[in-house]
Each structure stands twice: as structure tokens, then as C-alpha cells.
Amino acid sequence: MRKMFSRLILFWLLLHLNFESMRNIKLVATDLDGTFLRNDRTISEPNLEALRKLGERNIIRVAATGRNLNKVKEVLNDEVPFDYVVFSSGAGIYQWNKKEHLFAQNLSKTSSEKLLHAFISRGLNFHAFYPVPENHNHYFFRGTEPCEEFERYFNFNRFYASELDPAQLPQTELCQFLVIIKENEDDFEKLKAEIESLCPEIRVIRSSSPITPGYIWIEVFHHSVSKGNGVHEVCKLTGVGADETMGIGNDYNDFDLLDFTRHSFLTDNSPKAIQHKYPLVPSNENDAFAVSVQRLLE
């Protein structure tokens, strides 16, 4: 109890010091899972109220998430007042209040085909997603080693999944690939290097599994795709400068967002290995978003 109390005092001191220099914030971007949403994927009333108040102050509200747009709509209804959604880690941008697609960045047909061949030949468990904005649909391929996490993801998304036929690969652009491996830092770094050497057009983003601890999700996108670049695009659309932005996240795949925003925070439920990188705020179960923007609303 004493340790928890000390950490809460530290949170408030850090917020006070940081928010003193945050008078000019015009855009706030937040990750969804593990940050804005609670663990059961619901939204706390303090977070929802903070979002409304930001709008009253004409501060632009952006959700920046790894979810595709269909999955965003599973956790955000029309009454949740975001202005923009940067989805699929920045592969697409959607104007939430106008229901309008504004931006898409897919992998080229050449890179998509090369990655398909490489992953199949390596016997990896992976999913390959249709181009934005239809990227809730995807192909799946079971590798040589059974993977429980792969099957869990498949079962959650089987309605949108088609089995990949190695003899008849899709001849099209693709939005992204998701490769699932057991958590092992050496294996991840080796596979990341191998994947990035295949095509100059691609980049690899690491994410902790939101389904089961002990697995790494390796996401492969066009090299320009990131949450940070997605928020940058929103800034260009709205005339907001990078020094007028704030971001909050909770995982490795939020680094691009938090590196871009001028004032950036990690939630207390983020992996311990990365908590030194940005100031901490309370966990997603303790209204992280509402706490982080509180001083903007005073």
C-alpha cells in the first residue's frame, strides 16, 4: 500500500511539472487497448468525460491504434467523440465524425508477394491482410509448428479469414502481415533482421500480445506506416504543429507515436522494460487518459 501511494504521488508530481509547459496543446492522441480502454475493452466515465471536455476546448482528439477500422468500431460507438482515428498502426486514417476515409498506405504487390513466399518457405504462422480499407479481411497460414496464440487469434477473427493457398497466392497489394511467435528476444531480433532484409519498402513493428502473455506479435507494414506518421498526417490536415501535440500509450508499438508527440506519457501497465522511456501516468484501469489530460482542462 505504501509503495502504491508513493508511486501515485510521483505520478502527480511528474504531471504537474510537464503540464506547466503544455498550455499550447491543440491535439491529443491516445492508444486504445491498454491505454484509453480498460482491460475489459470498456471506457471509464472519467475518460469519456475528459474526451468531451477536450472537444469543448477545441482540442483535436485522435485515437491511434493497431486495430483495423472494423475492430475500432467494436469498442467505440458513434457517441464516443473522437475526431480522427489512425488505425492499423497508421496504415489508414478515418475522420470519425464525418465517417470518411482520408488516407491509406499499403504494401506494394511486389513486396507482398515476396513476403508471402518467404513466410511460407520458413513455415511461419502468419496472417496477411487485405489492402486498406478492407483490411479486416485476411488470409491465414498455419506454419510447421503449432501455435496456440495463432489459433486464438484465428478463432477471434475466423469470420473474416480465408486460408492461404500456397499454389495460388493473391496477386494484390496487402496492408500488413502479422507473424506470431513465442516470446524470445533472440528469436525476435533474428527474425526481424531477416524480414527487414527482404524488401527496402517494409518495416517491422513489435507488439506484446493483447490476448495471451508470453507471445510476440511481429507486424510488417510499409516503411512509412506508423502511429506517429499517422498523427503527423492528421496534424497536416488540421494545421497543428508537432510541438502542439500530446500522446499517451502503453506498449512497444506506441514508440513512434510518443516519439512524435511533443509531450508523451506511458501508462503504469506498460512493460517494465520500457517504463524509463517516458513519464508514467496511472494504469488503464485507473483512468490513465483522464489523468494525463486533466491539467489541459483546468
TrEMBL record:
GO MF terms listed in the record are: magnesium ion binding; phosphatase activity
UniProt-listed InterPro entries? HAD-like_sf, HAD-SF_hydro_IIB, HAD_sf
CC annotations in GO: cytosol
Lineage start: Bacteria, Pseudomonadati, Bacteroidota, Bacteroidia, Marinilabiliales
Tell me which species this is from: Maribellus luteus
- Give the domain of life: Bacteria
This one is known as: HAD family phosphatase
Mind telling me which Gene3D superfamilies this protein's record contains? 3.30.1240.10, HAD superfamily/HAD-like
Q: Which SUPFAM superfamilies match?
A: HAD-like
Instruction: Tell me which Pfam families the record gives.
Output: Hydrolase_3
